[in-house]
Every structure is written in C-alpha cells, then in structure tokens.
C-alpha cells in the first residue's frame, strides 16, 4: 500500500513537471496573423525570407512598449479573416480596414493609418481616367475593401486574386485593364514600375486600418491600444511612414 501511494505521488509530480514545462515553453507566445502579400505594409523579403514592413514595425514597437511576447503567423487573407472570427489567432495586423461588418466578428484597436482605394492602369492607357469610366476586367485581392468597391462599379468586372502582386503582373501583361487596391500599395507598385504603370483619379474611399483582436480578448486589446497610443505620441507612425511609404 505504501509503495502504491509513493508511486501515485511520483506520477503526480512527474505529470505536474511535464505540464509546467509545456505551458512555460514556446506555446505562450501571442499569435499575430498577417497576410504578408501586401507591400509595403507586410510582405516576405525575398532576400532574407523574413516578414517585414510598416505593420510589422508598428506591431513590434507596440509589443516592446507593452512587454508582449509575440510571433507573426503568415496566412492568406481569407484564412486571416475567418481565423480572427473563430479565435484561431490572438490578433492580426494586416492593413485591415475597420468595417462595421468585420467589427461584429472581431475587436479592433483604435485606428493607426488612413488609406483609400485607388485605380492603377497601364501607363499607355488613355481611356480610363478614374472611377467613372472604369470599364472592363479589374483586379483586386479577394475579400478586400478594394474587391467590394469594384463590385459597385457598373462597368467593371471583378477578377479576384489571392495575391495583389499577381494582379499587377496580369495588368502589365494586358490580362486585365486595372487594379484597385489601397493607395500606398498601388504607389509602391507604380514606384517599382514607373515606365509601365500609372495611377488615375484620386482615392475614392476613406478607410482606417486597425489591429484586429479576437473577441473576448479585451485585456490584449487594452494593451495594444495603450502601446499604440504611446508609439503615436512618440512620432513612430510618421517615422515608419517615412521609412516604408512612397512619397
Ligand atoms: N485594407 C484592405 C481591407 O481591409 C486590404 C487589406 C489587405 N491586406 C493584406 N495584408 N493583404 O480589405
């Protein structure tokens, strides 16, 4: 009997050891989803293989201020929104426009950046001058505010892409007539291909980016907002804009 009790105790001790070592191991990092196909906000540097960009700097700076142990998880845009609604990730930073619809499925930080939709066409295009005469096949990233806007334009037919880079490639190959996406992203592609691409018209939506937080994680949301407020006060948003965005 004594032996049995001793055995029982040692099994319990072992179990608790295993349990604590697991929970203090790498599993407690805060999981931040991002769709790293959206330069210059989040993309994979093809030299280093690392995720980088404006948003990555913003999130790292917030994490530093608030002592958050974070890891970035690179997921497709569709999976990111679905995962945030289901609580698969703790939070997401991915140039996410705060919309009423999304705010029913996830929490949002205070806004940290203003953007709007803009049209990119071939430099040689003389017929499309803005939203009002945008006709033909128009590319946008699936499930983004850009795609939603294209659907509202009578003459335009939406072609969905998982990766906006492929839409710009198709535009340059003459497969589609225009791309609609967030203005800083368009400016980035035009800046890299100034002999092929140009912007037409002005931004035609007013959008605010927010950091999404899984529903119920109000402590995390409060920390992210506090960190955000601190980095805004320090002028870091302007600094990162200078560093990453096309002038
Ligand atoms: N701002 C747009 C939206 O919220 C596009 C964001 C796409 N972000 C990305 N990382 N692919 O719909």
Care to describe what's here?
The chain is of the alpha/beta class. It has 2 domains: 124 residues, D-Maltodextrin-Binding Protein, domain 2 (3-Layer(aba) Sandwich), CATH 3.40.190.10; 89 residues, D-Maltodextrin-Binding Protein, domain 2, CATH 3.40.190.10. The strands form 4 sheets. The protein has a 5-stranded mixed beta sheet with strand order 5-1-6-15-7. α2 packs across α8. The chain is globular, with a radius of gyration of 22 Å. About 3% of the residues have low confidence. Bound molecules: arginine (ARG). Arginine (ARG) binds next to β2.
How many domains make up the 3D coordinates?
Answer: 2
Helix content: 40-55%
Q: Kindly, what is the distance between the CA atoms of the first and last residues, rounded to a whole number of angstroms?
A: 79 Å
Major sheet characteristics: 5 strands, mixed
Secondary-structure element pattern, one letter each: HEEEEHEHEHEEEEHEHEHEEEHH
Class from secondary-structure proportions: alpha/beta
Bound molecules: arginine
How many runs of DSSP E, i.e. beta strands? 15
Percent strand: 15-25%
Give the CATH superfamily of the largest domain.
Answer: Periplasmic binding protein-like II
Rounded radius of gyration (Å): 22 Å
In the sheet with the most strands, the strands line up as 5-1-6-15-7
The CATH class of the largest domain is identified as Alpha Beta
- Return the CATH topology of the largest domain: D-Maltodextrin-Binding Protein, domain 2
Number of DSSP helices?
9
Question: If you average the pLDDT, what whole number results?
Answer: 93
| Poorly predicted regions | 17-24
Shape descriptor reads globular
What is the CATH architecture annotation of the largest domain?
Answer: 3-Layer(aba) Sandwich
């Amino acid at each position: 009997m004594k032996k049995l009790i001793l055995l029982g105790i040692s099994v319990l001790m072992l179990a608790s050891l295993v349990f604590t070592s697991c929970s203090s191991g790498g599993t407690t990092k805060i999981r931040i989803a991002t769709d790293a196909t959206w330069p210059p906000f989040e993309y994979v540097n093809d030299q280093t293989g690392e995720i980088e960009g404006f948003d990555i700097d913003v999130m790292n700076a917030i994490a530093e201020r608030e002592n958050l142990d974070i890891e970035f998880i690179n997921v497709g845009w569709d999976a990111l929104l679905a995962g945030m609604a289901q609580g698969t990730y703790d939070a997401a930073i991915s140039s996410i426009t705060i919309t009423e619809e999304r705010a029913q499925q996830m929490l949002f930080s205070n806004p940290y950046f203003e953007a709007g939709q803009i049209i990119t066409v071939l430099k040689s295009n003389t017929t499309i001058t803005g939203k009002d005469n945008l006709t033909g096949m128009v590319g946008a990233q699936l499930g983004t505010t850009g795609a939603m806007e294209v659907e509202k334009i009578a003459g335009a037919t939406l072609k969905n892409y998982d990766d906006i880079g492929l839409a710009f490639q198709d535009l340059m190959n003459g497969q589609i007539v225009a791309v609609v996406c967030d203005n800083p992203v368009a400016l980035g592609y035009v800046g890299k291909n100034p002999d092929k691409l140009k912007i037409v018209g002005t931004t035609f939506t007013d959008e605010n980016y927010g950091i999404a937080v899984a529903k119920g994680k109000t402590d995390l949301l409060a920390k992210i907002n506090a960190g955000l407020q601190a980095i805004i006060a320090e002028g870091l948003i302007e600094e990162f804009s200078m560093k990453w965005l096309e002038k």
